[in-house]
Design goal:
The protein has eight helices and 26 strands. The longest helix is centred in the N-terminal third of the chain and has 9 residues. Helix 7 packs across helix 8. It is mainly β.
Length: 478
């Protein structure tokens, strides 16, 4: 869908959809910051945080948000960057980094392959004939784009990826085409450098989706978007966590569930019979090798995020109704848990990109067949809707917050639109982020566990969530 030349969305929504309503109603106090802040601030003691209230219809018909929030469209496919190159289409994964003078630097993927109207046009591509890659936006403190430029090019289907603790972006190719299916490191402060066109081969050649790094260990966790797909980790030879260090190689492993020896199981729980083991796989053919070695087959892994000592990831089409699951892996205890499972009754469809908010909630971007939303889940066991795409049926992608937590950035994939969203967000809360990593899921979204399985889990020293993960993947716990 292209914009009407006489009245486009940017002209109509200069400040953003809900701000139009806010101007009209602000004098009533309806959108008062103090009122909304009182609603929004989480209170663990009172167990009271239930989100930001119902969504308000966007007069522009683009993005519904709760009362008190507003957005600005900061980038659209087909526009022009400062040097005259077109803004590429198919916006996807994204991360935010601190810039100069309170600015934010966004690095954004473009999930492109083959001929396309708005390709990524780079000056130092990996392979010139391919149209995918990444761009960057420098967004000032007023949430306006100061600069927009290409950061890498010549790749295929740059779907998701992940930020590194040292300020670069790992962009992932979701393809099995020969010579592709790699991870590349992109430095927004040194765009289109040779590093951006050099695949990190030891991270494997497969249909990559997302990555996230444990800052304590430097280990990279990776998801695969294929059928079947596997859950990987990459142990770097150089864990200095510096630009280019991942190019020094390492070991790629895939997760498996196995019966443990009695001496091994006693490391964690008395009587535990099953556990996660990591098996080395050939980076040139990791999917085949993982399957042959009995690693855990998932349906189709998507989003990934690491926060508070926990790696979160989702399987977008898993479950009896193919509606999706979210897992969390805790490296300190080598524990895999099934955190939530979508069903027809709990109204959450096909989780894709995910993130942990600065105040500690889990946010999930849907990629289902109907209207897609951002769903929030709290450590206190509540759920809420934060945003809904009213423009079309395209997915919301690349959810990320500015490092100060004051602005939320997200994309509509097609037509490519990047939003800056602000309002009465709750304050940053590192303790609550850690709490989310060990909280029980909201009851309607928790995996169903029978009394018999729960009893067996207790005997084996497992949580219900851990037992559910093992049972869903065929381990004979009962």
């Amino acid at each position: 869908m292209r914009k009407n030349k006489n009245m486009n969305r940017r002209d109509f929504l200069k400040v953003g959809g809900l701000s139009t309503a806010a101007i009209a109603l602000g004098s009533t106090g309806l959108f008062s910051l103090s009122d909304s802040r009182a609603l929004a601030s989480p209170s663990a003691a009172k167990n009271s945080f239930r989100g930001y209230g119902p969504l308000v219809k966007d007069p522009g018909g683009v993005l519904d948000l709760p009362q008190g929030f507003q957005y600005r469209i900061i980038s659209e496919e087909g526009g022009f960057m400062a040097d005259g190159r077109p803004i590429p289409e198919k916006f996807d994964g994204m991360a935010a980094f601190p810039g100069q003078n309170n600015s934010t630097v966004l690095v954004r993927n473009h999930e492109l392959s083959g001929n396309t109207k708005y390709p990524v046009i780079g000056r130092n591509p990996y392979q010139r004939e391919h149209t995918g890659g990444t761009t960057a936006l420098v967004v000032d403190a007023n949430r306006k784009v100061r600069e927009e430029y290409v950061t890498s090019s010549g790749t295929i289907r740059n779907c998701a990826g992940g930020a590194t603790p040292w300020g670069t972006w790992l962009t992932c190719e979701e393809t099995l085409e020969e010579g592709h299916g790699y991870v590349f490191e992109v430095d927004p402060s040194d765009p289109e450098n040779n590093l951006s066109r050099t695949p990190i081969r030891d991270m494997g050649a497969f249909s990559h989706e997302a990555t996230a790094i444990d800052p304590a260990s430097g280990i990279v966790y990776l998801t695969e978007d294929a059928g079947p797909s596997y859950f990987y980790r990459f142990i770097p030879n150089d864990r200095s966590q510096r630009v280019g260090a991942l190019q020094k190689g390492g070991v790629l492993q895939a997760a498996a569930m196995e019966q443990m020896s009695s001496d091994h199981s006693s490391d964690f729980y008395t009587g535990q019979r099953f556990g996660i083991v990591w098996k080395d796989v050939d980076p040139e053919k990791p999917t085949m090798d993982a399957g042959q070695k009995g690693c855990i087959p998932f349906s189709r892994l998507e989003g990934a995020y690491f926060e508070g000592g926990v790696f979160w990831f989702d399987d977008t089409s898993a479950g009896d109704n193919n509606l999706g699951r979210v897992y969390r892996y805790i490296p300190a205890t080598n524990t895999l848990e099934l955190f939530y499972e979508s069903t027809e009754s709990n109204d959450l469809e096909m989780p894709d990109n995910i993130c942990i908010t600065p105040w500690g909630d889990l946010w999930i971007a849907e990629d289902g067949g109907g209207t897609d939303r951002i769903i929030g889940m709290t450590p206190e066991g509540e759920t809420y809707v934060f945003a809904e795409n009213r423009l079309n049926g395209s997915e919301l992608a690349g959810p990320t917050f500015s490092t100060r937590g004051e602005t939320f950035f997200v994309n509509i994939q097609s037509p490519g639109i990047t939003f800056a969203i602000w309002g009465p967000f709750a304050r940053k809360n590192a303790g609550r982020q850690r709490q989310m990593g060990h909280a029980a899921p909201p009851a309607p979204y928790a995996p169903k566990v029978s009394d018999k399985l729960s009893a067996a889990a207790e005997v084996e020293g497992m949580s219900n969530l851990e037992a559910a993960a093992f049972q869903r993947h065929g381990m004979p716990i009962l």
